[in-house]
Amino acid sequence: LFLLLRLIRNVGIVQIVVGAGFVLSRSPSILLLAVGALVLASIATAVAVLGWLRYTFAIDAGELVVKKGVVSQDTLTVPLDRVQSVSIEQKMLHRAVGLVQVSLDTAGTSTAEFTIDAIDRSVAVALQRAAADYRPQPDHLSDQSTDAEALEDPPRAELVERVVLRHDTKRIVKIALTRMPFSGLALAAPLVAFGDDIFDWLPIDLPELEATPGTWLLWFVPAVLLAVVIVSVLLNVIRVLLAEWELTITSTTAGLRRNAGLLSKTSVASSLPRVQRVEIQQRPLERFVDIRTATLHNVGEGNFRVPGCDEAQALELRSLALDGSDGVTVLDRRVSSLEVFKAVRNSSIVVALATVVLWATVGWWALLLLLAVPWVWWSTRRRVRLRRWGIASDALADRNEFLGWTSQEALLRKVNGVTVRQSLFERKRDLATVRLRLADGSISIGMIPLAEAQAVRDRALFVAETDRRAFM
User: Fold this and answer.
1) Tens digits of per-residue pLDDT, 312-321?
2) Coil/strand/helix, residue 56
């Protein structure tokens, strides 16, 4: 049933009806048309069913083994300790037949490693929990093959679930209103094609543009822009409500699980030790309603993005991501104020060249480009003055602020490499940029004293080399 519904969805009901009508109008026999359609549907169904029968997966000795292929068979083997997240999604088509879609994400790819389009929810949940709860057997036990008790899996704690947060409808509406409604602006494109018809439906007579250009610009253009913004905001609220309905974060002994969605329900689970860094962001509109967006970055696409958090919820997610560490409690270090001079110098050169080039085409209006220089000075000065970073015995944190703010924090034991770099400007002033590379990205702090950058490098490498816990 699902294969048939998916085939109809992919082809499209309108396309099927139009195609059938076109063929019927030129077919010499309705019976011949019916036989042809039946043959094509049988071939498509047979191929889909054969592909489904040849698609199998199983967990064997700590590895997920997936076999697929109709003519040739491909075997994919994924160690469970490399699985970053297992996502469960139930779209409207899946809900109609009581099935779900499950996607597995590993550290080896930037996209989902594989996707099972339709399986029973109980099987998907079992796979999700098996991947999140898996712990590899210690190496020292593998050599003690004679001791049967030592080879047994250690007892696991009972899976206890605790709700970390659950957003109500009011909170989700706040999330929608603090996002830029770009999706709703797509409505303006099809409206242009029907512009004349829409104007005919209006209850008022529009002024002639040639006769009253001032009136047109004063009220009609702003009115259209306002209408587009209102429609965009409403569409964005509906979109966010459907996607984030009853957003719930649950903590278990195996990790975190994110559930959300109204028409299409999604569930993402990941083990906490696989979180590489935690990012908390508060954009300008979010500051107005006092909410934040917390993101726990894993490798690949399995990130936990939790919008609409209050301060306590964001701090709890940070505490969970740090896996028992206190992290950086005080951000007491700053970057050099020479960053302002560097930014102003570079922008002044670019603006001066652009002004000279444009002077011949736009005249004295080109002088307006010079206003960019004081803007760069003010914005860079504010960023430098507000930026703070800090390092603890086992973590590093960096906070950038302008109109909004973003804070990043990572455990030093999850650092894969450290780079200390000096540009020509920094070398002359005994400054440097230190960059900590993680499995999912990096944290970079520039324009700090060379001695501080080297100290951060030495500390990070020492922790990464001496701490034997897995970094993902």
Assistant:
1) 999 999 998 8
2) strand
